[in-house]
Amino acid sequence: MAPTPRTLARRARRQVLRPAWFLARAGRASGPEREAVVQAAKAAAAAGAAWLLARWVLQAPQPFLAPYAAVFLVVQVTVYRSVRDAGQQLAVVATGVLLALGVTLLTGSVVVGLVLVVLVGLLLGRLRVFGEHGQWVAVTALILVGQAGPAASSPVEAVVRLAEIAVGAAVGVVVNMLVLPPVYQRDAAAALTGVTARLADLLRGMAAALREDQEARSDLAHDWRHRARALDGEARRARDSVAWARESLRLNPLRRRPRTPSPSAVLVPAADAVVEVAAHVHDLCEAVVDAAEDAAEDAAMDPLFVGSFADLLDHLGEALEEIRDDPGALSPRSDRSPPGSAALELMTAVHRDAARRLPGSSGEVRAGWSVEGALLNAAQRAVVDLTGRRPPRTPTGPTPRSDA
């Protein structure tokens, strides 16, 4: 069905007003919008400073490569990335300048020169030394040949262009390092605590539903699996945010402030554990879906197991809530017992109880036993990732006879 004119008008109005809403959010509170505005302002200031400095130091009439290099480095999301990319950027543009110089010396034709610099520049840009910026070899050479024409064959002009790049790179790195250097710890902490809270809510809801129904309902099981799959991806994105937070402190002057916690000691262990637990929760939900399908075929789980397993899910949810409230609980520097200790104790009891009902113990084979084993396996992996310990092995099989 095609959208109505009113719907199209509403969409158009939203697109027109979106920049104003973006700026309003940036002015109202800190967040991604304000960070984007700050980085844009820094890039604009760096471009102007690089242009003026290059004209003053190099006496170049049109030092357009200086602001280009400055903007390229300021818009990098971390100070460390600006410094790292400065060397690559110098190598990229220097190669482009030298390529333009060599081609114009050989051909003397602007058209042939444009064709050759694009062809050779794109091939050279695939070298690993240029990283992800290799395509700019061809772009830089193309601009120089197209703008300067035969004048691009001047070795003196090439040296000036290289100096412009050096000036612009220096300005970009200094501006990004000293003027409101970006730090992403708050975003990382919010992403991590958010996904941890939603994982805990999912486990709590599963426990309550299993305890109430004494079986896995198909409609709920499929909904849990869908939520778990989404949370698995969200947990990985949260771990990426923590990695950005860690990198944002490298070479950052703000790191020297005592009030700035180190994400490597606080957030990284928690993020790694939450990612692993989220994957196990997804496996667990897959097993619950199997249990719901088996229940429809008169292969339901043991009610005693369902009750114990619901308690185990509650303890896992409680452990995740501890991480949500204190991400440093999993830090190696923490002197408290790791979250999930209660789940570990209950896991041991559930293993012991399940071992008594194994086929080898009683000779009776239940159809739901394989599903219970899959659920226990996924839950155990989650407990191990939270505590770093594995439940003690419970001997299985029949009790040996005594030769009395």
TrEMBL record:
Region (Disordered): 382-404
Domain of life assignment: Bacteria
Membrane topology: Multi-pass membrane protein
Main location: membrane
Keywords, comma-separated and alphabetical: Cell membrane, Membrane, Transmembrane, Transmembrane helix
TM region(s), chain numbering: 90-123
Pfam families: ArAE_1
Keyword Cell membrane: yes
Cellular compartment(s): Cell membrane
Protein name: Aromatic acid exporter family protein
Lineage: Bacteria, Bacillati, Actinomycetota, Actinomycetes, Pseudonocardiales
